[in-house]
Amino acid sequence: MRAHAICFTLGRFIQAATLNTVIALGLAVFGDKEFSTNLVYSQCIGLSIWGLLDGGHRLLMPDRAAQKHRLIWIVPLGATLGYVFGTLVANTLLNTHNSFTFWASEPRQALGFLVLSLVAGGGSTYYYMSREQLAMAREDRAHADAQTEAAQRHAAESQLKLLQTQLEPHMLFNTLANLRVLIGLDPTRAQDMLDHLVAYLRATLDASRTTRHSLQAEFDRLHDYLELMAVRMGPRLRYTLDLPPELAAQPVPPLLLQALVENSIQHGLEPQVEGGAITISACQADGLLTLEVADTGVGSQIDLNQPALRQGSFGLAQVRERLRTSYGDQGTINFIAGYAGGTRASITFPSEI
Amino acid sequence: MNHTRPPTALIAEDEPLLAAALQAELAKLWPELRILACVGDGDSAVAQSLARKPDVLFFDIRMPGQSGIDAAAALADAWETQGADAAPFPALVFVTAYDQYAINAFEAQAIDYLLKPVQPDRLKKTVSKLQLALIQRAQAATSLIAPAWSGDTQLDATLAQLRHLLGAVSGPPSDASRANPVVPLQVIQASVGATIHMVPVEEVLCFEAADKYLRVLTAEREYLIRTPLKELQAQLDAQVFWQIHRGTVVRAQAIASVSRDEAGKTTLQLRGLKEKFGVSRLYSHLFKAM
After folding, report:
1. Is residue B174 in some structural domain?
2. Is the distance from CB of B242 to CB of B254 less than 8 angstroms?
């Protein structure tokens, strides 16, 4: 670390010396003194100013960002002192006349040099400070970027997993197999089924892009899904969608109920030879919206209220996660096993209108 | 074997449209084939197959009641291979929407499989394969003069493949999939009335499924717990406890003898228990004289 700091200091020293040389060159071209004299004065004054400012920053501004205002007096003071000290050193080195008499003979030129010192000191301080700030900002951004990237990756992964559960291959290929049969048997029904499939797929793919849709839209998508399942399961699936018209416009996270309905079918009705019924309903009380999925299936042998689920866990974990991100502690999910032999799941969260 | 009898088949598929479509496709590609029955669940599939003894079975894998694979295993177990009613084990075709079991990865293709939606060209291949198998079977039956059905090759090959599908090869050290549970269970907690009994797993001789309960048998007494066998088995050391039947897992070291009766049924006696336990065909390969 020390070697690192020395390296940086040396770098700034060389840059300061280069600037001094450029100034000396400029003075030689536009002034009346020769280059060597200009160079000695320029280096002596410039390096003195550099030393004072560089040390001054270090000693008087341990916290750069918060103590930036101190530059207002550090820079003029450092530059002036540096100018005086550098001039004295140069006088001694060149063994010339006391150049402070210069102030009497050529006040304008002398003032010009002082102003030049101030400008060079201020300019280079400004340059270094902004570079430092830039580096710090870059570091902050890199850190923030890494965090955002991790969050995005996490979101993308869970999005992918959600898609995989929703576009579950059994569901998709069985549906397509039924569609293939219907095309030959009953083209009108096949078209109907295809329309439901298209709406279902579109909703599934769009769900990640919107945070809310209306409860009506939610029920419409469930209707699409249940229609697809009804073609497949025939009389083994009966369903009721009960949405009170006054709740139709309530905003809800898209496809929140989908996983519950899939669970009811997959773990409740499908294993049961005689099939069963699903009822999906919504009600509102005391500013809370309750959505309920009840089935008459086999019922679960495990307690679904336990967060650590063994089977079919991803869909439910996803529902919990989405409830938490959308409503915090105010969103709850509750399972009642053994309701009419099956399972009743209810989700409650604050209604937004 | 009489050559005039037309080949017969049974379809087990819970989705009515798909069952009807498969039947229609088969009628086109294999007009002689008689479909004896179309059933919609695994239990009926087993019952109907046993009753009507078809030559070919088309089993959907995901079915209510019992999965197609479980149904095939139950059928293989209950199939009569000896006596007057003995018939060769049917050729098995699984029909599935998604090949999660990677059925086609098996070398021994005792079981064919079809992916849904069923493509006519693919079904044609299956039909030719089945026709060939039935011809070979008929030839074998006529060329060998009255063979005692000492070994039904179709049944043996089917069993071997089903064992893989079920991941049922427990016991032998070669199988690593289930051999090392993360943390083997130490104690079984069984409630008797208001008391919870702590039963060390070392004392357990046998777990047997009975209705909604699981019987836990030790040399001294019997306990009932509610944990399903499958779930419990995952927490047992497969080297120590061997599965011998769909609903039975026994301590290998406690097995005293395994015997086979005239009907081909295998039973097993445990040291310290009077009760005898049936060994299903799926697991009887575990017991061979050294």
Report:
1. no
2. no
Task: Report the distance separating Cα B14 and Cα B17, nearest Å.
Answer: 9
Residues B221 and B158 in one domain: no
Report the CATH number at residue B105.
3.40.50.2300
Q: Which of A182, A273, A301 sits opposite B41 (nearest CB)?
A: A273
Q: Looking at the structure, tell me whether residues B148 and B193 fall in a common domain.
A: no
Last residue of a domain, one of B141, B168, B195: B168
Contact list, B20 vs chain A (CB under 8 Å): 181
Q: Which of A164, A179, A180, A181 to mutate to test the interface with B (most CBs of B within 10 A)?
A: A181
Helices marked H in chain A: 2-30, 35-60, 71-94, 102-105, 107-166, 169-185, 187-206, 215-233, 258-263, 313-327
CB burial string B107-116: b at 16+ within 10 A, e below: eeebbbbbbb
pLDDT in tens, A64-77: 777 777 778 888 88
Longest dimension (CA), chain A: 115
B156 and B215 both lie in a single domain? no
- How many of the other CB atoms lie within 10 Å of CB of B21? 22
Residue B106, phi then psi, degrees to nearest 5? -80, 145
User: Cα separation of B118 and A153, whole Å?
Assistant: 38
The reply to whether residue B117 touches residue A182, judged by beta carbons under 8 angstroms, is: no
pLDDT of residue A247: 94
pLDDT score, position A306: 53
Q: CA of B59, closest CA in chain A: separation in Å?
A: 15
Task: Over range B127-141, report the average pLDDT.
Answer: 87
Contact B207, B248 (CB under 8 A): yes
Question: Which residue of chain B is at minimal alpha-carbon distance from A273?
Answer: B64
Q: For residue B276, what are the contacts with CB-CB under 8 A and spacing of at least 6?
A: B267, B268, B269
Number of domains in chain B: 2
What distances in angstroms separate CA A163 from CA A226, A268, A316, one per listed residue?
A: 18, 22, 14
Task: Specify the CATH number for the domain of residue B209.
Answer: 2.40.50.1020
Calpha distance B76→A6 (Å, rounded): 82
Does an H or E element contain B202, and which?
Answer: none
Instruction: ipTM value, please give it.
Output: 0.76
* B99 lies in the same domain as B193: no
Structural domain of B263: 185-287
Instruction: Tell whether B236 is covered by a domain.
Output: yes
Q: Where are the alpha helices (DSSP H) in chain B?
A: 16-29, 42-52, 68-78, 120-143, 153-166, 229-233, 281-284
Q: Is residue B111 part of a domain?
A: yes
